[in-house]
Amino acid sequence: MDEPTYNFLQKLVSRPGQGDVLEQAGKLLRRQQRRRLYEMIDQIDKEKLEKFVVTLEKYVPQLGRKRAAFMRFSMPNWQGYDELFWQALGDYTILALHRVKDVAYDVTRAKIKVQYFAKLEGDIKSPERVREIIRGIAYLIDTEAVPTDFTHFRRMTERRGTLGAMSKEEAALVGAAITLAFDLAKKI
């Protein structure tokens, strides 16, 4: 077994986690993607962001672990944008904020609603920080710095409960897990 595969599997078995191996591997991958997304947002030139207007219209604070925070943002620059771009914005918002309960958008009114449970300690994201994150994601989508060709929204609605629900990454992980299982069986 090669070292990267071994290190990856060590990460999976060294901590408790919910879900099967593929789901846990997906969570590790999303954590890395989240870090990279934050790096990309932080590298955006502030002057270039000035033309991307994102306004917090409504905010209902989180109530401990009982009620998610609710925020509604207006994005006039995105009025009339195709649903594909709004879906991508929703996907990247879910990736960035991590514990999202719901994301909804209104293409004609150019608004996005987010419900999420913020961390109670550590990296707590204020409504202003969430606004900046969404603004940065909108910029990255507009400048084609991130892909918009496949979204979780479409995958959830069109492929739920089918064999086609497995992504390329998941299929690769299944292949690696099977190879590992055969390697381990040979050693026994």
Q: Please, could you describe this protein's structure?
A:
The chain is an alpha+beta fold. It has one domain. It is built from seven helices and four strands, in the order H-H-H-E-E-H-E-E-H-H-H. It has helices at 3-13, 21-42, 46-49, 83-97, 127-142, 152-159, 168-187; strands spanning 55-60, 69-74, 100-106, 111-116. It has a four-stranded antiparallel beta sheet with strand order 1-2-4-3, with helices on one face. A hairpin with an 8-residue loop joins strand 1 and strand 2. Helix 2 (21-42) packs across helix 5 and helix 2 (21-42) packs across helix 7 (168-187). It is elongated and about 60 Å long. Residues 159-163 have low confidence and may be disordered.
SSE blueprint and pairings:
Blueprint: H1 3-13, H2 21-42, H3 46-49, E1 55-60, E2 69-74, H4 83-97, E3 100-106, E4 111-116, H5 127-142, H6 152-159, H7 168-187
Antiparallel strand pairs: 1-2, 2-4, 3-4
Count of alpha and pi helical runs: 7
How helical, in percent, are the residues? 40-55%
**N-to-C series of helices and strands:** HHHEEHEEHHH
Find the count of extended strands (DSSP E, 2+ residues).
4
Please, what is the oligomeric state? single chain
Note poorly predicted spans: 159-163
Number of domains: 1
Radius of gyration: 19 Å
Tell the overall outline: elongated
Query: How are the strands of the biggest sheet laid out side by side?
Result: 1-2-4-3
Strand content: 5-15%
User: Main sheet, how many strands, which sense, barrel?
Assistant: 4 strands, antiparallel
* Structural category: alpha+beta
Q: Could you tell me how far the N terminus lies from the C terminus, measured between alpha carbons in angstroms?
A: 15 Å
Nearest-integer average pLDDT: 82
